[in-house]
UniProtKB/TrEMBL annotation:
Belongs to the glycosyltransferase 8 family. InterPro entries: Glyco_trans_8 (IPR002495), Glycosyltransferase_8 (IPR051993), Nucleotide-diphossugar_trans (IPR029044). Pfam families: Glyco_transf_8. The keyword Transmembrane helix applies. Keywords: Glycoprotein, Glycosyltransferase, Membrane, Signal-anchor, Transferase, Transmembrane, Transmembrane helix. It catalyses: 3-O-(beta-D-glucosyl)-L-seryl-[EGF-like domain protein] + UDP-alpha-D-xylose = 3-O-[alpha-D-xylosyl-(1->3)-beta-D-glucosyl]-L-seryl-[EGF-like domain protein] + UDP + H(+). One of its GO terms (molecular function) is UDP-D-xylose:beta-D-glucoside alpha-1,3-D-xylosyltransferase activity. It is a single-pass type II membrane protein. This is Glucoside xylosyltransferase 1. One of its GO terms (biological process) is protein O-linked glycosylation via N-acetyl-galactosamine. It is found in: Membrane. Its main location: membrane. It comes from Mandrillus leucophaeus.
Amino acid sequence: CKDFSLCYWNPYWMLPSDVCGMNCFWEAAFRYSLKIQPVEKMHLAVVACGERLEETMTMLKSAIIFSMKPLQFHIFAEDQLHHSFKDRLDSWSFLQTFNYTLYPITFPSENAAEWKKLFKPCASQRLFLPLILKEVDSLLYVDTDILFLRPVDDIWSLLKKFNSTQIAAMAPEHEEPRIGWYNRFARHPYYGKTGVNSGVMLMNMTRMRRKYFKNDMTTVRLQWGDILMPLLKKYKLNITWGDQDLLNIVFFHNPESLFVFPCQWNYRPDHCIYGSNCQEAEEEGIFILHGNRGVYHDDKQPAFRAVYEALRNCSFEDDNIRSLLKPLELELQKTVHTYCGKIYKIFIKQLAKSVRDRYATSPKEK
């Protein structure tokens, strides 16, 4: 028998005499496999400097535990953290559900020092992700103090809800204007009524790279790589929250380019510290927890810390994840003396659903 390819053009029942039928069946399976589309990867970026290794690893673990599609991590970190990240992530390689790339912290050389000291060390790195990750179409950027309480797939799917002008998505900085920061104290333009928070930012970076942005520095529209430094020079004495303030200025002038998602996708202490003010989280639970103000590491907001420690201490074994909820609920019940603790059930409502959907069925039952 000839061993390959002649039967591409012949149905099985019309094979030439010197072609084996066995090869044709194999080739049919081979041709079918070629038609299967590769599974889309979800790209997740984080910037870690200083003492943020453990917090970042817990965030990455929460992303892995619940997500369905494979993840590609883009980790920007100070050089001294690279070895630790590599050791920890390589120890998770048995999962085969993610890949990662480590990058150094890099800023435009002519203004590197100025960018690095803006707000927190290295935080403004996120502004340059569309210019550094040129081959990446879409990206979810998160701060290190983020915890996913439902699959990354779900926020990733919001990309499909963008209209033709939208290039990025963020949540409002505040739901209640009376305690809002931007509307009371900002000395620069900001998006909407209360500004937006950039701790969870979903980006169509292809659109970001192509767009020409309206601005208040020139009548000429500027592309992403050209607008950042002029913005910093104009507003550096007026901004408090660094790169987040610059993003607010950009989207103030280009509001049609922003998709705003609800507060449950970026739930912070501000949503409960003075009483509950995120209605969507009350109804459906918290989707993404954002422990800003260092609340995972002090006793000011014990409900946030309880969720963080539960996920930090959780291993990847199915039984371990399934048994996560009851001890966590008992810990949360100890926090009812705080405003956030009074509504502790919203901290586990979505988490319980995620565990149930992903891990409720044992392998033998599947």
